[in-house]
Each structure stands twice: as C-alpha cells, then as structure tokens.
Specification:
This protein is an alpha+beta fold. It has 9 helices and 21 strands. The chain has helices at about 20-30, 60-70, 80-90, 150-165, 175-185, 215-220, 280-285, 390-410, 475-495, and strands at about 10-15, 35-40, 105, 115-120, 165, 200, 200-205, 210-215, 230-235, 235-245, 250-255, 260-270, 300-310, 320, 330-335, 350-360, 365-375, 380-385, 415, 420, 460. Strands 1, 2, 9, 10, 11, 12 and 21 form a 7-stranded mixed beta sheet that branches. Strands 6, 13, 14, 15, 16, 19 and 20 form a 7-stranded antiparallel beta sheet that branches. Strands 5-7-8 form a 3-stranded antiparallel beta sheet. Strand 14 (about 320) and strand 15 (about 330-335) form a beta hairpin. Helix 4 crosses helix 9 (about 475-495). It holds the Pfam family GMC_oxred_C.
Length: about 500
C-alpha cells in the first residue's frame, strides 16, 4: 500500500462531497498545474465517479448501493411498518426516520424535543450521491453579513455553474403552474420577483424520461480523466490526523479504512471537507481546537404536511415558496408517493408532500462532543450531540405548522388521516455552524470569511459547517458558493510565489 500511495501533493482535500469537489474544480481552474489528492473514507459505488444514486432506476440495486454508502454501519434497514405510519398519522414520533440509510440518533435524548438526528455516510461523492439536488438561493437575511453582497452574489452564480443548476428541470407542468399561481396570489405580494413562488431550482439535466440528477461527477468534470499524478481520489481511505506545526499544516496521516496501518502524505495545503460533524471531529483529533470548534451546531426543522390536490391530472414538478425577512420559512412542495402507507378512504385526490423548513435559534451551548476514550469506525473520537430546543424554536414551529396548513388549504386541503408532523431536528441533514466563519478571531468562529482556520496559513474547512447564520433554505448551493472563496485564495497564494 505504501509503495502505491502518493507521498506528497500540493493540495489534499479530505472528503469528496460537493464542497470538497468545488475546491478541486476551482483550484484546477485557477492553478492548472496543481497536484490534487482527494481522500474519501468510503468506496466508489457507481461507475460514474460521484454519480447520483437516484439515476439508478432498479430500486433493488439502488437499495444495495445505499447500504454500501452508509459508512461504518452497513446493516440493512427495516422497512416502515403499518403501526409506525399509524403513529405518524396520529402525530406521534416516526421511528422510521431513523431507518433512512445512514441516519441515526446522535445524542442521548429520549423524547421528540431532545432528539438530534445524525448521519453517517461515506462513499466517493459524499452526500452528492444522495442529496435531494435542490439548489434554492438563500434569502438576504440568511447570507453572511460580512461578505460584500456583490461578491457573494457572484459566488452563488459560480456555484450554480459548478452544480449544473436548472431552474425548472421537469419543464412545463400545467398542474404545477396552476398551483403556483394560486399560491402566488397569497405569498407574492410585497416580494421581489426572485422570491416569488416558483419551480424549485435543481441540480439536474432535463431528459425525455425525466431529469438526470447531478452528483459530484458534474462538479469534478474532466478532473476524473486526469492522470493520477495530477488528480487522484483515494477511496476507502480515512484521515486520522492533520499534521501541523507553528500555524502551518504540513500533511495528513492516512490509513486504509478498517485497518491500523498508516502513512503520511505531505501537502502544501490541507482542506478538511468531511461534513459538519466529521470536520470538527478531525480537527479535534488533530489538536486543532479553537474555542468555537463543534459549537453553535444548528439545523432547520422540517414540518411535514401531506395535502390533497383535487385533480385527475398528475403533477410531477417540485415547487418552492422562498424564505423572506417577513416569512422565514422555505417551503418545498412535490408529489407524494403513498404506496407504502396506509391511507384514508377519504383521500381521493392526488397526494402532495410539503416540507416547511423552519429555522432554529443559534446557541453556543449546542455542540458536537467528542469522546477521546472511544473511537468510531474512522478511528477517530466518537461523536455525540448536545442540543436543547429553545423557546423561540417552539414558537416558530407553531407558526410553521400554521403555515403548512395554510399552504395545504390553498393547494386543496390537508390530506385526511395525516397529521402535521415535526421531524426531529437534524433530519434535513443540513447541519451548520460547527466550523463557522467569522469576521474576526474573537473565539466565536473557527475560520475567516475565506474558510481559512484562524491561526493557520494553509488549513481550510468546507461544507455546511462554515455557515454562521440562521437559515431555512437548503444550504448546498450556499456552502458551495462559500467554498469558492477559499479555493480561489489557495490558487492565488500559489500564483504569488
């Protein structure tokens, strides 16, 4: 293994998800001769490097691949039972959420308010192989206030290009258009046109048989065709430590996943782009422990609602009610498949699923904890989450529930037999804040506006964890945009040598 492994590189990126891939692509654009190594703890599960699992049409085959992508726990999940759906319909806690491939409870809570859902997944492409592909634009209130507005807007447009965003990948859908018009009559007044009710922007390419969903294969582009001496992905490889001295990262300690044999890869720059749970975990294990590391963990809630649309014509497109300063919820509306659910005999129209993404208060005390005495499957300190719901969260959730019911009434009516349901926080898998950026190094952030870790010349972090603001909007476009600042800085520093 040691003879085959690279011994040095210009840039090493730990993690192969969307933001890590964005770093690689922008660095290549601005620094053509850079040697880049990407490290991924999981396997390559698809022929397309970083391809999206939803493009696998054979559902049995897709289920097998999802298990391979679960990280350390690769046991099959049980299907949802009738009793569990009955509990959900009655407004009870839906334990089936824990059976989502790779999802687990990441704290010690034992009730709905205290639960925080964690996620363990590892495969080439990271969450880019499994994500919803939704790429809505954050509202002004959600954006980093200390990055100039024009710079952030330009970065968002760059991110749209990297992800391959299409504004309406399902194309003309008369039923969806009519529904949006009704919703727009209620929600559009007072908004700017970019925040009107609209199709959900998606990272997808339209096709005659439906969209082709984009994973990190689209972000990486031709990088995967390069010789291994200029770009290489080390799959089934874990990073145990970032080596550093006097404010400079010099390399990383790597191991084949599941083994204890390690080797060192020297690097001019290190980018840690695992995710918002595992990036602070690796920094902690490496002795990089700024005060804010792992703290301020945040995620938006999802208030789920099933509505009934009274029409015989099918609707396929996904729609979006954007968050604004006045209404801080991002609402996603899409056809719902109820083939696995018991459903009321009173449900005669088309079922429509709705997720009202509800922001949660940011609190320094909410944090990721690390147990140095217990190692996980990466060989790193085990993760748990300490999180408490705020009074503001509870009030906002009541508002979100009323918004869900209001939207359902505009669509048609709330579907009979299905309660308005609040999923455990964390279920969206949009964790943020654990390596948050800040305007200055005052102990409340981990990195600067370019995602460079405070006190280091060449150590960067990436992913949703860098987002320091309260959000409701799906964050992938946002965090990919923020990643472009760091990637550009890395390339610019090299050019100045």
């Amino acid at each position: 293994m040691k003879a085959m492994a690279p011994q040095s590189t210009d840039v090493v990126i730990i993690g192969s998800g969307p933001t890590g891939s964005a770093y690689a692509r922008i660095i290549r654009r601005d620094w053509p001769e850079a040697r880049i190594v990407m490290v991924e703890a999981g396997p390559q599960i698809l022929p397309e490097v970083g391809g999206h699992l939803d493009n696998v049409l054979d559902l049995a085959e897709r289920a097998k691949l999802e298990i391979l992508a679960q990280g350390g726990d690769r046991s099959p999940r049980m299907s949802i039972s009738k009793e569990e759906w009955e509990a959900r319909r009655a407004g009870g806690f839906d334990a089936s959420l824990l059976r989502r491939s790779g999802l687990f409870i990441a704290n010690e809570g034992d009730d709905g308010e205290g639960l925080f859902a964690g996620f363990s997944a590892a495969n080439v492409g990271g969450m880019g192989t499994k994500w919803s592909a939704g790429t809505p634009t954050p509202s002004q209130a959600e954006r980093v206030p200390f990055i100039p507005a024009d710079e952030l807007e330009a970065a968002l447009r760059t991110a749209e290009g990297l992800l391959g965003v299409h504004k309406d990948p399902r194309g003309p859908d008369p039923v969806a258009v009519a529904m949006r018009e009704r919703l727009g009559q209620q929600f559009n007044p007072g908004r700017t046109p970019d925040r009107f009710v609209q199709p959900m922007p998606m990272a997808a390419t339209p096709g005659p048989n439906g969209p082709r969903w984009h994973g990190t294969d689209v972000i990486l582009g031709n990088l995967v065709k390069e010789p291994e001496d200029t770009f290489r992905i080390l799959a089934d490889t874990t990073c145990r430590k970032v080596i550093h001295e006097s404010g400079r990262a010099t390399g990383v300690v790597l191991a084949r996943t599941g083994t204890d044999e390690t080797w060192t890869l020297s690097a001019g720059t290190v980018v840690v782009a695992c995710d918002a749970l595992h990036t602070p975990q690796l920094l902690h294990a490496s002795g990089v422990r700024p005060k804010a590391l792992g703290h301020y963990i945040n995620d938006h809630y999802i208030v789920s609602q099933i509505a009934e649309l009274d029409t015989d014509a099918p609707m396929q497109a996904m729609s979006w009610i954007p968050a604004t300063n006045e209404l801080p919820f991002s609402v996603t509306i899409a056809p719902a498949s109820l083939h696995t659910m018991p459903k009321s005999a009173d449900l005669s129209g088309q079922p429509i699923g709705m997720g009202v993404f509800c922001p949660a208060d940011i609190d320094e005390k909410n944090h990721v904890a690390f147990d140095d005495s217990k190692l996980d499957w990466h060989g790193l300190p085990a993760i748990s989450i300490r999180w408490t719901q705020s009074e503001g969260d509870r009030k906002r959730l009541e508002w979100a529930k009323q918004t869900a019911l209001k939207v359902a009434e505009i669509i048609g009516r709330p579907a009979p037999g299905f309660a308005t349901f609040v999923q455990p926080v964390g279920s969206s898998l949009h964790y943020q804040g654990t390596v948050r950026m800040g305007e200055k190094d005052d102990g409340t952030s981990v990195c600067d506006r370019n995602s460079r870790v405070w006190g280091f010349d060449n150590l960067y972090v990436a992913g949703n964890g860098v987002i320091p603001t309260v959000t409701a909007t799906n964050p992938t476009l946002y965090s990919t945009a923020l990643a472009t600042f760091g990637a550009r800085q890395i390339a610019a520093a090299r050019r100045s040598l």
